[in-house]
Write a structure and sequence with these properties.
Blueprint: H1 17-29, E1 42-46, E2 49-52, E3 57-60, H2 63-66, H3 75-87, H4 99-111, E4 118-123, H5 126-141, E5 145-149, H6 158-163, E6 181-184, H7 198-215, E7 222-227, H8 241-253, E8 257-261, E9 285-288, E10 299-304, H9 305-308, H10 324-340, H11 342-363, E11 367-373, E12 376-381, H12 391-403, E13 406-407, E14 409-411, E15 417-420, H13 428-445
Parallel strand pairs: 3-13, 5-6, 5-7, 7-8, 8-9
Antiparallel strand pairs: 1-2, 2-3, 4-10, 9-10, 11-12, 12-15, 14-15
Helix pairs in contact: 3-10, 4-10, 7-8, 11-13, 12-13
């Protein structure tokens, strides 16, 4: 029996007539290389709810790919942006400085892990933060090499693509790529050899990385290692703490900088302000963006003051970097996070999601793995007989949930992982309604 919906409202077949007309216009005017997950045009949004142009109301478990930890249109953020817009929109920090840039840099330096002096540079996007972190690392060390990891994602710019490990859709026929980039193996605990314990597997992966420094990339030529503390696009893969700490220590031993890419993991998503804290490490540099400003474009590199000061004036930055609107929005978001204790809320959301799907796993063995850290949760769908990726099933479940008013995204190299990136302001009632709809959809399409 289908429960009555309090939040989700689907008025008719999707897409509706207004959406269909906009899709026609989009087809004629927008480059086909710009992908869309759903035939969805948004009219308004608030908290964890999206309303489309046809009046359908969806529960949002995608959060604009993890940019909305503070929710859609937080009132204090909207107010801060409105007030700033009345004063000035843009002066370019390189030309006319403004206090919100300084205040945000101070705030980020104070929040970032590390018992040392820190500084920040503010930029526009996650990819731009990654590019500048690499520039800073190379300038500080005088070395060219950068190590990233299999299944890692670091952006779609040339350097971002070079660091990213998934070929399609991000890299195919886009080369040649940036030189002096090396890919090291990254753990995948769900797919570890069955005979290995978790600790044995962590040590095995760490030994692989130590061998990598002998066989693939000389430490003397490496400026930095860049790692997502929890892989995002790669499938929300949580690495063993022993592995992360071991890589970090090897970096210390060889004078290699450790860059934590916290663009998707940052600002409460994993239950702490930064995921690095879970692993007990103090990165030399941290890249942040996404949920920093509730959807306004802004990013940053935060790190050790002496490293951040390596570039000369003019060598980092950009015309729109750290825009006034982005800065005041970010400050309002950070205030909201503290005021509403969104880090703790992330932990509660994550526990509920994992508990829900751990129970469903007993009825639906196509659920191969339920994992996550804080509210950064995922379900991996695999064939029960051999653990092969069940990507077609995952795509079908995503579509079935969309038809019922739930927005979800896939992840993973094979596209067989469903990830959860709901705003952390989602209410308990909204969360339960969304989980109920997902359960209904799963039961309807799964044939055991």
């Amino acid at each position: 029996m289908v429960k009555e919906r309090k939040y989700v409202r689907i008025e008719g077949p999707l897409p509706g007539p207004k959406t269909a007309e906009l899709l026609r216009r989009r087809e004629a005017a927008v480059a086909s290389g710009v992908g869309n997950n759903f035939p969805l045009f948004v009219e308004s949004a608030s908290g964890a709810l999206l309303t489309d142009v046809d009046g359908n109301v969806f529960l949002d478990f995608a959060g604009a790919i993890g940019t909305l930890n503070a929710g859609h249109c937080p009132p204090t953020v909207v107010q801060a942006v409105q007030q700033q817009a009345e004063r000035f929109l843009h002066t370019c920090f390189h030309v006319g400085m403004y206090e919100p840039y300084i205040e945000l840099a101070e705030k980020l330096a104070a929040l970032a892990p590390g018992s040392f002096a820190k500084k920040a540079v503010l930029l526009n996007s996650g990819a731009e933060a990654v590019e500048n972190a690499v520039k800073i690392a190379r300038k500080h060390t005088g070395k060219p090499g950068i190590v990233s990891f299999t299944r890692g994602f670091h952006g779609r710019t040339l350097l971002g693509m070079s660091l990213t490990s998934k070929v399609r859709p991000y890299k195919f026929q886009m080369g040649p790529f940036a030189p002096a980039i090396y890919k090291a193996p990254y753990p995948y605990p769900y797919h570890r050899p069955g005979a290995m314990s978790e600790e044995e597997y962590a040590r095995f992966c760490l030994d692989q990385f130590a061998d990598f420094l002998l066989t693939e990339a000389a430490p003397e030529e490496l400026a930095a290692v860049i790692m997502e503390p929890v892989q995002g696009e790669g499938g929300f893969i949580v690495p063993p703490k022993l592995f992360v700490q071991g890589v970090y220590e090897l970096c210390r031993q060889h004078s290699i900088l450790f860059i934590a890419d916290e663009i998707q993991t940052g600002f409460g998503r994993t239950g702490t302000m930064f995921a690095s804290t879970h692993f007990g490490i103090e990165p030399d540099l941290i890249t942040v963006s996404k949920s920093l400003a509730a959807g306004l474009p802004i990013s940053a590199v935060v790190g050790r003051a002496d490293i951040m000061d390596a570039p000369n004036p003019g060598e980092i930055g950009g015309t729109y970097g750290g825009s006034p609107l982005g800065c005041v929005a970010a400050l309002a978001v950070l205030d909201q996070m503290e005021r509403e204790n969104l880090c703790e809320r992330a932990g509660q959301i994550g526990l509920r999601i994992r508990d829900h799907f751990n129970k469903l796993q007993k009825q639906h063995p196509i659920i191969g793995d339920v994992r996550g850290l804080g509210a950064m949760c995922a379900i991996e769908f695999t064939e029960p007989s051999d653990r092969k990726p069940a990507a077609v099933f995952a795509a079908g479940l995503i579509r079935a949930c969309y038809d019922k008013g739930i927005i979800l995204l896939t992840a993973g190299v094979h596209g067989n992982v469903i990830r959860f990136l709901s705003p952390l302001v989602i209410t308990d009632e909204q969360l339960e309604e969304g989980l109920d709809i997902m359960s209904e959809s799963l039961s309807e399409i799964y044939v055991g």
